[in-house]
Specification:
10 helices, alpha+beta, single chain, four-stranded antiparallel sheet, 26% strand, elongated
Length: 358
């Protein structure tokens, strides 16, 4: 298959967005798109390019005082009758348009057209962000090639609708269990109903008052919610077990350990098992490249209320922000789309930032 990412396509981030969307790359099926991206980058003499699995890294070595990472994931969620792309007026529709092939297009466009930026740049086009962390390309790179991630600042080109979203919330999932004793429902008094006992768990959730935390002028709103409940044996059996899965989204001033302690406090007296967690990331607005980037964007930053891979950079001591043309409210939606104007504005902003200090 010929590479659709031709020189004529690379110079226009809008055309490039559509070309990337038209390469199917559902998570764990990024081999083709990674190959095309790698081929493009290896032809650029100002970049050194390497690949690990379906993650492609390219970087400049210009001797600049600071290094910046531009990172974007190549994978999408499963298709939903939204492939290939279509254009209606100022909108490009298709799987991954917002999350986040329009952001990937900005990075790939800059890699191809900006040979001498004001910072040394590392471009990371990585696999499997939309699924379990163990498959995530940045996670795998951190294990095998940690030097690829070394930088003074990072920008994740996640959908933010052209606004800088600082840091990210942490996330924790836990299973809260209640137990009882089985009995025939005709003689229910001989048993103890575990589903009924879950009422106290739900009451605590209903009464829960989440924190609102302001960090570096950015407002993070926490939340604790039941997301799944399971219990029951048969239609004529008093159940002896019930499990309520809860999800805590916590501000980045809490550590993972503090988040775990918090859910244990909320559900004191119940059996609780933490099944998954990831730390948040502080806003990261004080690094010099971050201040310069904010000046180029020209608007106030907002808090990132979801979890993104900025957390991985924060764990390495690298400040990181989210910025991309897509609308996060459209991510994963069947009518997912991106505004052409947002793509052009994003490309201009990044170019202005990266050339201001040549």
């Amino acid at each position: 298959m010929a590479n659709p990412l031709t020189p004529d396509v690379l110079v226009d981030p809008v055309v490039l967005t559509r070309a990337l969307v038209d390469i199917e790359s559902v998570s764990r099926d990024e081999k083709v798109i990674a190959g095309h991206v790698e081929d493009v980058l290896r032809q650029l003499p100002h970049l050194s390019t390497e690949r690990h699995g379906n993650t492609v890294m390219a970087r400049t070595s210009l001797g600049r005082e600071q290094r910046v990472v531009l990172a974007g994931h190549l994978d999408t969620v499963p298709l939903n009758d939204n492939f290939p792309s279509t254009v209606v007026d100022d909108l490009i529709y298709g799987c991954g348009t917002s999350d986040m092939k329009s952001g990937v297009a900005l990075a790939l466009h800059l890699a191809a057209t900006l040979p001498e930026p004001g910072y040394d740049l590392t471009y990371l086009f990585y696999e499997a962000e939309e699924i379990e962390s163990r498959f995530n390309g940045l996670h795998l790179v951190s294990q095998e090639h940690p030097e690829w991630l070394e930088a003074d600042f990072a920008v994740l080109l996640e959908p933010t609708y052209g606004v800088v979203e600082a840091g990210c919330q942490g996330t924790l999932r836990a299973s809260v269990r209640t137990t009882g004793r089985r009995a025939h429902t005709a003689r229910a008094w001989r048993g103890v109903n575990a589903i009924h006992a879950a009422g106290e768990v739900l009451r605590r959730l209903a009464d829960y008052r989440p924190r609102t935390v302001v960090l570096d002028g950015c407002t993070y709103r926490e939340g604790l919610n039941a997301v799944r409940i399971a219990g029951g044996v048969a239609g004529n059996v008093v159940p002896d077990e019930c499990a309520i899965e809860v999800n805590l989204r916590f501000a980045p001033d809490r550590t993972e350990r503090q988040a775990v302690e918090h859910v244990h406090e909320v559900f004191a007296g119940f059996d609780l098992e933490v099944t998954d967690s990831a730390p948040g990331a502080m806003p990261g607005l004080t690094a010099a490249p971050a201040r310069e980037f904010l000046a180029a964007v020209g608007s106030e930053p907002a808090a990132k209320l979801g979890w993104t891979d900025v957390s991985r950079f924060a764990a390495l001591g690298i400040p990181a922000l989210n910025y991309g043309p897509g609308d996060p409210l459209l991510a994963h939606a069947p009518d997912e789309h991106v505004e052409i104007g947002k793509i052009r504005d994003g490309a201009a902003t990044l170019h202005r930032w990266l050339t201001a200090y040549e």
